[in-house]
Design a protein that fits this description.
With 314 residues, the protein is an alpha/beta fold. α4 packs across α5 and α4 crosses α6. The N terminus and C terminus are likely disordered. The chain starts with 11 loop residues before the first helix and ends in a 51-residue tail after the last helix. Among the domains are: 125 residues, Lambda Exonuclease, Chain A; 89 residues, no CATH class. The longest helix has 24 residues. Strands 1, 2, 3, 4, 5 and 6 form a 6-stranded mixed sheet that branches.
Length: 314
């Protein structure tokens, strides 16, 4: 069984908040945080309530950099969207990323004590070449000279009847010029999951499809996952029944999160994901001790029954 690659750095959906005009929400959930809870309730707590820092990884930063180049590539005229041009965009995109987040440079520190992830030494030239390889593989899967995305890095949000806010960022949204059909595209710089392990990725796409359906009144015609690690595309055609089931599942996840908040019991769940978890050293499942739960006043971010706007809940 192949291991899933670690997620990229936190998406903009995890770092920004958008008020929901006139609506008080009981909480907010993104696909990433919902996935955290399903994977391990303690991981959700440490990331969302404790907000413990996590060192960036080379794989995560590669994902962030490649996503940025793929976003910016469509600013160019169609004829200029070539593998060579994408490769030329890597260095300046990295410089901008490193300027915005200087701690990323520590990944390539030759001194182990100075490296952000505490891992083995990384050669920057080799790492940047791996980013170029991933980018070049994308051109074998899609032809950007024939694509004109309607949206890139599109922030989407909707509020369910339960007053739970759903939010996230869609990598690319294509709209067919003839009938307006929607195609939701997500880039993954890792390898496609083994058979039987695709559901987390498909859940993320159904989540986005649900939000788009609720906000635009149209069920997306196609959900497309582009795996650049091994050059595979996974396509799925959702229907209303799929999205209603997804909504029920999201609501059930939120109710489980709320129960954990009320009880204070955030139980760890051992899995293969533990192999790359940044918090393994403090996990009781591995002999560690997590920090005490932060004090949470009623109505504070992450507290039970919090009724703020979208910025006041995870």
């Amino acid at each position: 069984m192949s291991q899933a690659a670690p997620d990229p750095l936190p998406s903009p959906a995890e770092r920004v908040s958008t008020p929901v005009d006139g609506v008080h929400v009981v909480g907010a959930l993104s696909p990433s945080r919902a996935g955290d809870f399903v994977t391990c309730p303690l991981l959700y707590r440490l990331r969302t309530i404790d907000r413990l820092p996590e060192p960036p990884s080379a794989d995560a930063v590669r994902g962030t950099l490649v996503h940025k180049v793929l976003e910016d590539l469509f600013d160019l005229p169609a004829a200029e969207r070539t593998p060579a041009r994408a490769g030329e965009m890597l260095a300046p995109s990295w410089e901008a990323l490193a300027e915005a987040e200087p701690e990323l440079v520590a990944l390539f520190d030759p001194d182990p004590a100075g490296r952000a992830d505490g891992g083995p030494p990384l050669d920057f030239t080799h790492w940047l070449a791996s980013c170029r390889t991933v980018l070049e593989r994308w051109f074998t899967l899609e032809d950007p000279t024939r694509l004109e995305p309607a949206e890139r890095e599109l922030y989407v949000e909707t509020v369910l009847e339960s007053k739970l806010l759903l939010r996230g960022f869609v990598d690319r949204l294509d709209v067919a010029p003839d009938d307006g059909a929607l195609r939701v595209v997500d880039y993954k710089t890792g390898r496609s999951p083994a058979v039987g392990f695709e559901q987390r990725a498909l859940f993320q796409m159904r989540f986005y499809a649900l939000v788009l359906w609720r906000t635009r009144g149209v069920v997306p015609a196609l959900l497309q996952l582009v795996y650049l690690g091994n050059g595979e595309i996974v396509r799925y055609e959702p229907d209303e029944a799929d999205l209603l089931a997804t909504e029920r599942r999201i609501q059930a996840i939120w109710e489980a999160i709320s129960s954990a908040r009320e009880s204070g019991e955030w139980l760890p769940r051992r899995s293969r994901a533990c192999d790359w978890c940044a918090h393994r050293a403090i996990c009781p499942a591995w002999g560690g001790t997590p920090p005490p739960l932060p004090d949470q006043e009623p109505g504070s971010p992450g507290s039970p029954g919090s009724a703020g706007h979208s910025g006041s809940a995870p």
